[in-house]
Amino acid sequence: MRPLLNKIRKTLNSHNMVSPGDKVLVALSGGSDSVALLALLRELSDELEIELFAAHLNHLARGEDSYRDAEFVKELCGNWNIKSYLAEKDVKKEQEKFKRSFQETARILRYQFLKDVLKEVEGDKIALGHTVDDQTETVLINFTRGAGLNGISGIPPVREGIIRPLIECRKKELLNYLEESSTEFCDDSTNASKIYLRNRVRADFIPYLEENYNPNIVNRLSEMSQLIRDDMDILDSLTQEYFDKLSFDKGIGGGVSLGLSQLNLIKPGLKRRVLLAAIKFIKGDLRSIESSHINRLDAFSRKNILGKTLQIPCLIEAFISEDSLILRKKREGNKIELVSTFRSIDVPGKTIINDLGIELNCRLVDRTSFDFNNKNEKEEFFDFEETGDKISCRLFEPGDRFVPLGMKGVKKVKSFFIDEKVPKNERNRIPILTNGKNDIIWIYGHRIGHNFRVREETRQIIAIRGRDLS
Length: 470
Fold this sequence. Notes:
By secondary structure, the protein is α+β, with helices and mostly antiparallel strands. The protein contains 16 helices and 22 strands. Helix 2 (32-48) links the parallel strand 1 (23-27) and strand 2. The chain is globular. The termini are far apart.
């Protein structure tokens, strides 16, 4: 146990995670990682001169198991004389409000709960139980999605009052520690379900890489992510410098303006970062903002068409005025020319797209338990390994092409509309679903892409069901 304590001590010191007198709130799910985190910090609390608290949010998602975990947390903290704060939130009910997936809704509610408790105890830090294994999973997931440096930089050890003291520990080290100290914890049965991408990466992908490529891949990727974060610090400073130089009218009308001529002259990578900085300035974070949104904003700025407006997720709009690119919060009741409606789809989950008057429900099912006969009028089935979980909805764009189901050759979407006798005035209002590479998987209500069909070898299916809101 002593080597593990030394490792935690080194992580805490090297990243300046705590100071004497800090009140530290531990997010305690009841699982192995969070219990180990609380136990280790408890052993070090006198040495570090910190006071510990614990917080547990019951998501009401696993029936009796959810209540079992909450009761376990309460009893554990009582035995260790640590003040605990417990609450319940029905995440499934809250999904409608947030219009996000279950996992993302749960994350939002959990962080808000932790911040509320931290404020109540007048605390200083929130401690989370992420390990080096979690770090590697995150890096690999983001890599397979085609993320940039931000994505493959992984999970930061410290960010905005949140610390991760276990970020350099392997999960197996924590399990050994708990076993040696006879400390109990709760098992979460959902961690074994391969419906979720992270679980498949953990159970299949990482062991495959360890066995066939590098037995130390987990630590190597963690070290790589740290090197990238160090480089990101330099890039962030450069981005802020250019954002300050190119931006003006900050905060006026809930937005920011960028000098367009100068913006279009800087290097593409730096320009993308400045655009991200502008969006972050408006909405406070970059959640739900993807590389495809920045690509569209970049192309929109280069076209430089006065009076045109581009819709960006999270109620942000961009438009051109004289030599300026203006980004601002969408105003209630604004009548704007619709250049592009672009929306990420929650997978699994429900997504409402008010601009197009539709609701899309996505669910993941194993091939062995799937009933092809149970299909609604506006529902299609796809091979999830081909689509991935980065599915988006947009409108028709000139030059769009796809392979219609049943065909071998590529066909222009415009020609497809003509063949299907779709009226001209309706073509620009038909939702088009794409994957993370912007390949068309479904022209909603008409035809799916041949390459995304369910085949004999398909193992997991994604069913997407549409519903008109009117």
